[in-house]
Amino acid sequence: MAKGANDVILRDRLQFDIDANGDTALVYGRVDMSDYVSIVENKGLAVKEIRFHLRAPTKPN
Prior knowledge:
By secondary structure, the protein is low in regular secondary structure. It has one domain (1-50). It has no helices and no strands.
């Protein structure tokens, strides 16, 4: 999606391990977006796109 004049790109990296059964420990992460949201000013944040890049770190890219 094209980047507009008011668009902000946020990037975050989260890494976790999956065991032989395909299970993982509970993973919880968040990004503080309070700078972009204001209840008083009725200002919010619209998420246009989310991308996931899954990879196995033990294998070459």
